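[Q] Does anyone have a clean C-alpha cell version of this?
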Amino acid sequence: MLLDKNHNRGLPSCLIDNPGGKNSGYMIAQYTAAALVSENKVLSHPASVDSIPTSANAEDHVSMGTTAARKARKVVENVKHVLSIELLCATEALTYRQGEQAAEVFDGPTGRAGRGTRKVYEAAKANKIVAFFQGKDRIYTSLMENARRLLDKTPVERFL
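[A] Here you go.
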C-alpha cells in the first residue's frame, strides 16, 4: 500500500517523483519482497508429509527434523530481507513527508510519526539507508544491505 498512490495518502507512486524512463522507484523492491514471501509459503509446507518408509519397510517414519530446520532457517532469512525492504520503503516515505512538512512529521499534532518512528528513522539515516530518489535512477542493493545489517545488529527494544 505504501507504493500505491491510491492508498498512500499523497505520496508518489512507487515512492518516485519522476517515474518516466527506466526509473521505477521501489517497484522492483516490491517484486523482490513478494517473491520472498511467496517462497516462504512454499517453504512452510510441512517437511513431515514427505516422510517415507525405510529399512526394508521396518521403519515407517523418518524424522524430517533436519529438513524442517533448514526450511525454517531459510524462512527467517527471507523475512529479514522483506523487513529490510519495508524499512527502506518506510524511510523513503518519511523522507518525502519530512520534505513536505518539515518538523511536523515527528513533532506535529496527533497522527504524525512518534518518538519510536523518529528513532528508527534517525538510525536509518545514520546507517545510510535513506535514499530519497527524487526522480533519479538508483541501484538500491547497498541500501537494502545496509537496512539488513541495521536490523541484524539492532534489538527492536532500542527503538521503543
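[Q] Thanks! Anything notable?
[A] DSSP finds five helices and no strands in the chain.
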